[in-house]
Design goal:
The protein has about 220 residues and is an alpha/beta fold. Among the domains are: about 80 residues, Ubiquitin-like (UB roll) (Roll); about 70 residues, Photosystem II 12 kDa extrinsic protein (DNA polymerase, domain 1), CATH 1.10.150.320. It is about 40% helix and about 10% strand. It contains 6 helices and 5 strands; from the N terminus they run H-H-E-E-H-E-E-H-H-H-E.
Length: about 220
């Protein structure tokens, strides 16, 4: 190199310096790329992305669930001394009291003693709520059943089915009559039937000619 002209030596030194500068720049670029790929450097951005994804998951709607199966229901017509006589749809386990409440309750002239509020209803049944002084026919009673008019029912020996066949006497009230006579002994007169809870004056008057007491 000592034999080269001074100008040539100067050019070689200049090229070497440029090469060193370019090499440094290349290393700097590579280092910057490595830093960007370094997980430690990228961690804050990854955390932001994870938080955003979590927010999206939280806002996503829950999968639809199966609808609950509705209870079995009965459709019943109520007429008479209620505030809103109409056809109502009620749960199958509902009682006549629930029907009366659905119809707005009793009117002021209602005679609820003529019906059994604790009794259940059948689909398509007609419940008539009598007014005070009204003698409802068998077809208008809560449990319409034709009475045996040829032979009075002996309330001391009648079965539950026999008593249930009387107008205005449902299954529950018939059972209550049998329980009363079992606990207190035979009825001495038909008037003693009024001691059974649920048998009011109007209902008793309606069945007076249809019952008797054995000797």
């Amino acid at each position: 190199m000592q034999h080269l002209p001074a100008l040539a030596r100067h050019k070689l030194k200049l090229f070497a310096a440029i090469a060193l500068i370019l090499g440094g720049l290349i290393l700097g670029v590579k280092w910057s790329g490595a830093a960007a790929a370094d997980p430690a450097v990228a961690t804050p951005e990854l955390q932001d992305i994870a938080v955003a994804m979590a927010d999206v998951d939280a806002e996503a709607p829950a999968p639809p669930t199966a609808e609950a199966t509705p209870d079995e229901r009965v459709i019943v017509y109520v007429s008479g001394a209620v505030r809103a006589p109409d056809v109502y749809q009620l749960p199958k386990a509902a009682r006549i009291k629930d029907l009366v409440l659905a119809a707005g309750g009793f009117t002021t002239d209602a005679d609820p003693e003529q019906i059994n509020l604790a009794e259940r209803m059948d689909d398509g049944q007609h419940i008539h709520v009598p007014r005070r002084g009204e003698v409802a026919s068998a077809s208008d009673s809560a449990n319409p059943k034709p009475a045996d008019t040829d032979r009075p029912v002996d309330i001391n020996t009648a079965s539950e089915a026999d008593l249930d066949g009387l107008p205005g006497i449902g299954q529950a009230l018939a059972r209550r009559i049998i329980e009363y006579r079992t606990t207190n002994g035979s009825f001495k007169a038909i008037e003693d039937l009024r001691n059974v809870k649920g048998i009011g004056p109007a209902l008793f008057e309606k069945i007076t000619s249809l019952i008797t007491v054995g000797s």
